[in-house]
Specification:
The protein is of the alpha/beta class and about 140 residues long. About 40% of the residues lie in helices and about 25% in strands. The protein has a single domain, classed as STAS domain (Transcription Regulator spoIIAA). It has a five-stranded mixed beta sheet with strand order 1-2-3-4-5. Strand 4, helix 4 and strand 5 form a beta-alpha-beta unit. Helix 1 runs parallel beside helix 2 and helix 2 packs across helix 3.
Length: about 140
């Protein structure tokens, strides 16, 4: 998986993270690390561009969940706890639509996974980058 970032300015600063390839058990921690680095600089709004992501696994879903917690200022789950980390996603989903972490341009195969696990109700999904940045 490749990760690139850039900072966009809407009403507030928005860090756009673009990922390509597979988001799975071998790459999900790289994405979490990048998001943690961004949040550490003080930028609390992240737009994740999924336009070139061709595959997302359950570990990839855990990374989305973890980033949503980071952007809300909450402690991330212990990733070493495996199944309990996945179970905690249900509790966070009850918190409603994420305000500081949004998704851009997921491919149909990624959209299917997001819808299957209910993440389409958890994350705002955009197809227009400017509208996405302006929504923060």
């Amino acid at each position: 998986m490749e990760i690139t970032t850039n900072l966009e300015q809407g009403r507030v600063p928005v860090s756009v993270i673009c990922i390509s390839g597979h988001l799975d058990g071998q790459t999900y921690q790289d994405l979490i690390s990048k998001a943690n680095e961004i949040v550490g600089t003080g930028v609390k709004n992240i737009l994740l561009d999924l336009g070139d992501l061709t595959y997302i696994s359950s570990a990839g879903l855990v990374s989305l969940h973890t980033i949503s917690l980071l952007t809300r200022g909450e402690a991330p789950p212990n990733l070493e706890q495996g199944w309990s980390t996945l179970k905690s996603m249900d509790q966070t989903r009850d918190g409603g639509l994420q305000k500081n972490f949004k998704l851009l341009n997921p491919r149909p195969e990624v959209t299917n996974v997001l819808e299957m696990v209910g993440f389409s109700e958890f994350f705002e999904v955009f197809t227009d980058k400017k509208k996405a940045v302006d929504s923060f």
